[in-house]
Amino acid sequence: MAKKKIKRIAVLTGGGDCPGLNAVIRAVAKTAIAKYQMKVWGVADGYEGLIEDHIEPLSYDDVSGILTVGGTILGSSNKANPFSYLVSPGTRPRDLSDQCLENLRKREIEALICIGGDGTMVSAAAFAKKGLVVMGVPKTIDNDIYGTDMTFGFHTAVNTATEALDKLHTTASSHHRVMIMEVMGRYAGWIALHAGVASGSDVILIPEIPYELDCVAAYVKKRSQKGRRYSIIVAAESAAPRGGKMVVHKEVADSPDPIRLGGIAEVLADELSEATGISCRGVNLGHVQRGGSPTPFDRVLATQLGHHALELLVRGVNNHLVVWKDGRLGSTPLSRIAGKIKTVPKNSELVRAAKAVGTSFGV
Ligand code: F6P
To answer: In the chain, N or C: fewer CB atoms in 10 Å?
Structure first.
């Protein structure tokens, strides 16, 4: 018997936002509406909207003119886990996944496209196990989603971080200082590594290569003795000294991933100025990295991933994540990637190139 054609789909954006989300929504919805005459719904605020039944039709016009716009027209949440949802503080988390399925069923929505990071994919995989047709699209500035070489949003974040590092060079030079800039990335050092190399930073600190404070101090002092009276250090928010801990900014109790990292730049600035006697300043670039218009690269990648997700659904593929692997579009089962993250290989070609041009990793 021929497979029933999917005619009604919904799309949601989950987790922390990033530039390029709108480009995916646009690619999915335009392909679905114009090429396949499907009806499309947008779920507000990630899984939160699925739980709370905030699901509205999306028209072709709704997704026109959003390609270049940062953020997400649907809204996002990095708190709502439908399988363990905190309805109110002090109560026990509840499994509201059946309520979510009912909210889709009453609109006769047959498939859900989940644009998100690893947390979003864990829930997507769990919905697939309950029989929902799902397709994942990998987003995050962190570039840490397992199974894909690249996530959209990363390129834009690296651009933003590189511009900031370039600016820090001039003020560091004027004041003969060490400037330490902290970038996001959660438990992976991709943004720090790429922005560090792109800006010619002197020291790159990433969680995959635990640093030694003495080595960083010696490197900075040596530069100073050679007449290079300033240094630029880029530190991933999860960078930590060998045998030491990451700096935690706060814990968000009702989030599936409650730890929020942050503060390494300030901590290092104090420790390094004490160790070297050189004036040091810490800067945390923060959420600026998640904002703004996506770069052309991210617009293209997001459009391709969104389009591919829809085409795969039409071909009957289910429970997969669309990926960019070895220079090609593809897909991989959600069960293979959910719950895993992709970190920087310690001996990657880029790490080796950075070392070869004299960049220190603090070891
Ligand atoms: O995953 C994206 C990200 O920006 C991480 O790089 C960062 O650790 C985290 O989200 C910050 O989360 P929030 O927006 O809750 O502060």
So the answer is: N
The tens digit of pLDDT for each residue in 139-193 reads 999 999 999 999 999 999 999 999 999 999 999 999 999 999 999 999 999 999 9
What CATH number should be reported for the domain holding residue 119? 3.40.50.450
CB of 290 closer than 6 angstroms to any ligand 1 atom: yes
Residues 185 and 67 in one domain: no
Q: Which of 17, 45, 118, 142 is catalytic?
A: 142
CATH of residue 231's domain is 3.40.50.460
pLDDT at 1: 47
Q: What span, in angstroms and rounded, lies between the C-alpha atoms of 216 and 268?
A: 10
Stated pTM of the model: 0.96
Q: Which residue out of 186, 249, 287, 288 has the highest number of ligand 1 atoms within 8 Å of its CB and is therefore the one to mutate?
A: 186
Indicate if ligand 1 lies below 6 Å from the C-beta of 192.
no
Give the Cα-Cα-Cα angle 232, 238, 240 (nearest 5 degrees): 75
Cα radius of gyration rounded to whole Å, the chain: 22
Atom of ligand 1 nearest to the CA of 191: 6
Q: Which residue range forms the structural domain that includes residue 185?
A: 158-290
Same domain as 283, residue 299 = no
